[in-house]
UniProtKB/TrEMBL annotation:
UniProt name for this protein: MerR family transcriptional regulator
Keyword Glycoprotein included in the entry's annotation: no
Xref: SMART domains: HTH_MERR
Highest taxon, organism lineage: Bacteria
Residue intervals of the HTH merR-type domain: 9-78
Gene Ontology MF terms in the entry: DNA binding; DNA-binding transcription factor activity
Keyword vocabulary terms for this entry: Coiled coil, DNA-binding
Entry coiled-coil feature ranges: 86-116
Length: 264
């Protein structure tokens, strides 16, 4: 009959029960060099201490956060002083905070995609994929995708990658805000400032459409759609009080009509 386990030690089975893991898991952690038993009984049974339980808690917490066993091994530190224990706990806390942030962002993206799916009222995995990509890019205008027809989206995909699309949207939003500022300041549309704005805005539209008049026409219809988000409509309507007249003056001076054709 095996002698009783001496005070201060626990068998592998006791540790497994306390920490809700399997004996096989503890054996695996020992094999991988993550958590070796502090001692062995005379019969060869693995024996653990309370300090081992703290180490095991650290391993399990990091594993739950998605770290590989190899990564966990590099994160484990000595637990011999209060400062070292506190540092180990702070590392866990920091990893948890980062995970919470990631999960919060993932939840936001899932909820946003669900809202878009319901708003579309049709199954369109290509648009779903576009929305997911734009959500991951943190493009706040991901919701616009559902309003574009397939042909327009196909042309846009062919013209823009992630980097160029982000740059474009940044410039577009900047010009929209500039138009609102100019409108509120009552800047004359034929002033140097007004026409400089019109030129920059038209060049950006040309970049977006690649000179494709059909895409430009669909883009104009899109901008006038009553289905767009109310906040966007209100902001765009205010910007258009300056954009429209400024572009008309710009086209007139160049002898162009709004579709870029030379007037006779």
């Amino acid at each position: 009959m095996e002698k009783a386990i001496k005070e201060g030690y626990m068998t592998v089975g006791e540790v497994a029960k306390k920490m809700k893991v399997t004996v096989r898991t503890l054996q695996h952690y020992d094999k991988e060099g993550l958590l070796a038993p502090s001692a062995f009984s005379e019969g060869g049974r693995r024996l653990y201490t309370d300090k081992d339980l703290v180490r095991l808690h650290q391993i399990l917490a990091l594993k739950q956060l998605g770290f590989s066993l190899e990564a966990i091994k590099s994160k484990l530190s000595s637990l011999d002083t209060p400062d070292e224990v506190a540092e180990a706990l702070e590392q866990q806390a920091s990893a948890i905070r980062e995970k919470i942030s990631d999960l919060t962002e993932s939840l936001r993206e899932i909820e946003a995609l669900k809202a878009e799916v319901l708003a579309m009222q049709s199954v369109d995995f290509q648009k779903y994929a576009d929305i997911i990509v734009n959500l991951s890019m943190k493009n706040e205008f991901y919701w616009m995708i559902k309003h574009f027809d397939d042909e327009s989206l196909s042309q846009i995909r062919g013209r823009f990658d992630q980097e160029s699309s982000q740059r474009f949207m940044k410039e577009f939003v900047s010009l929209q805000e500039e138009a609102i500022r100019l409108a509120k300041a009552k800047v004359p549309i034929r002033s140097e400032q007004g026409q400089r704005f019109a030129k920059a805005y038209w060049e950006l539209i040309q970049e977006f459409t690649g000179g494709d008049l059909a895409l430009l026409s669909r883009l104009m219809e899109f901008g006038q759609s009553g289905e767009l988000e109310v906040e966007w409509q209100e902001k765009q309507a205010l910007a258009n009080t300056f954009i429209g007249p400024a572009l008309d003056a710009y086209f007139s001076d160049l002898g162009l009509n709004p579709l870029g054709e030379v007037n006779p």
